[in-house]
Design goal:
Length: about 400
């Protein structure tokens, strides 16, 4: 993980060390600022190409895509709204484009689809959001030469990965939230193991979630032959998880409240595995659907799944991950290019086939979502652990 730390006694030494370690070298991990508590889960392959000695401004470039990302920390005691800070900085660049103000992560933020002329003409997106430290803001500008077509989705995905508060890390991204404001409640009726459950999503959730799936799939396709294709695949699912989990907060609460008490009564020694099994059996009965064209993602967004749309193994595995993680049961996904398959894995103490997660050295039970089996069972032809790629949503 790329961390930007500033300590009064040796901040310049630390920043120079970071710069020489990363300049000219592509990386794929999250950009995290430990002082200001914000992060970016940018697409793979960005590298630091310039920075300021105070550690408050960084320029990132990409080897394969003609996109530039500027990240700047701004201290301003005169403004409280991100849109005002954004307007000031775009004006300094003589950039053209309207700036809008909206609330995101309980903060007043600014956004702009701008154009400017430096050595050539550029277009891109910019956002500005208040940070947890009072009077401080993060400004992001991501742009490409206007003549270079097809960079817009890559730019939006980059900025959309911003998180300014860990409390909201599993909520829709800043651009998605701006483009798809809340529209009101849409009620949904679920039947899980014979238990009827009434819950709801927002009326905008299906369209907004599909936007994120399509956006991230367009980015993923750029990495088909890239050396970081595995990391790009993992990020693809992380970005979709973040968006979908934020939309399922109420559904997760309602499902848990409806089922968990009976799981405790049925299995007081291990109610978690009983709850997880009820959910696994539920998704195993979903209607199957694959994309009609290879040019579109197979992934059915979770709001669509809840509303009865057909789906496949990865949508089901992510739904399980969202529902179990929301109640503190660590659950992840495994994906495999060789098997063209995905499964859920959960960190519950129960017998069965397990997968060792290298990042935390914990064992997770396999959860097959397309065959009617219990947790801990996996088909022999899918049992080679080396052919699975883990996607964690809690680390």
């Amino acid at each position: 993980m790329t961390r930007f730390q500033r300590r009064p006694k040796n901040k310049f030494a630390i920043l120079i060390l970071i710069f020489f370690a990363l300049a000219g070298k592509a990386f794929c991990e999250k950009i995290t600022d430990n002082d200001y508590k914000f992060s970016l889960d940018v697409p793979e392959g960005y590298k630091i190409s310039d920075y300021t000695k105070d550690g408050l401004s960084y320029v990132f470039s990409h080897d394969n895509i003609p996109v530039t990302l500027i990240m700047k920390i701004i201290n301003d005691n005169s403004e409280t709204e991100g849109s005002k800070i954004l307007q000031k900085n775009l004006s300094k660049l003589n950039a053209q484009g309207q700036t809008a103000s909206f609330n995101w992560s309980e903060k007043s933020c600014g956004i702009s689809n701008f154009s400017m002329t430096l050595d050539t003409s550029y277009t891109g997106w910019a956002v500005c959001a208040p940070l947890l430290i009072k009077n401080n803001f993060v400004l992001l500008l991501c742009y490409a030469p206007t003549e270079k077509q097809g960079c817009d989705q890559f730019i939006i995905s980059t900025i959309n990965s911003l998180c300014i508060d860990e409390k909201y890390k599993n909520t829709p991204g800043i651009i998605t939230s701006y483009a798809f404001p809340k529209e009101g409640t849409k009620n949904i009726e679920l039947n899980i193991g014979g238990k009827k459950i009434t819950t709801s999503i927002d009326k905008s959730d299906i369209e907004a979630a599909k936007f994120t799936v399509d956006l991230e799939y367009s980015v993923l396709t750029l990495y088909a032959n890239h050396k970081m294709w595995k990391e790009a695949w993992q990020r693809y699912y992380r970005m979709i998880y973040r968006d979908n989990a934020g939309r399922l907060e109420k559904a997760s609460f309602d499902i848990f409240n409806a089922l968990y008490a009976s799981c405790k009564a049925e299995n007081p020694n291990n109610p978690d595995i009983t709850y997880a099994q009820k959910l696994l059996s539920w998704v195993q009965n979903f209607s199957y659907k694959r994309a009609a064209s290879k040019s579109e993602s197979d992934f059915t967004s979770i709001p669509e799944v809840l509303c009865g749309q057909g789906n496949d193994c990865d949508s089901r595995s992510m739904l399980l991950s969202i529902l179990l993680n929301s109640k503190g049961i660590d659950t992840a996904m495994l994906i495999s290019r060789e098997y063209s398959h995905a499964v859920a894995i959960t960190q519950i103490n129960a017998p069965g086939q397990k997968y060792l997660m290298e990042s935390n050295k914990k064992e997770y039970l396999f959860g097959e979502t397309t065959a009617k089996v219990t947790w801990g069972m996996i088909a022999q032809e899918h049992a080679d652990r080396k052919k699975w790629i883990p996607v964690s949503f809690t680390e």
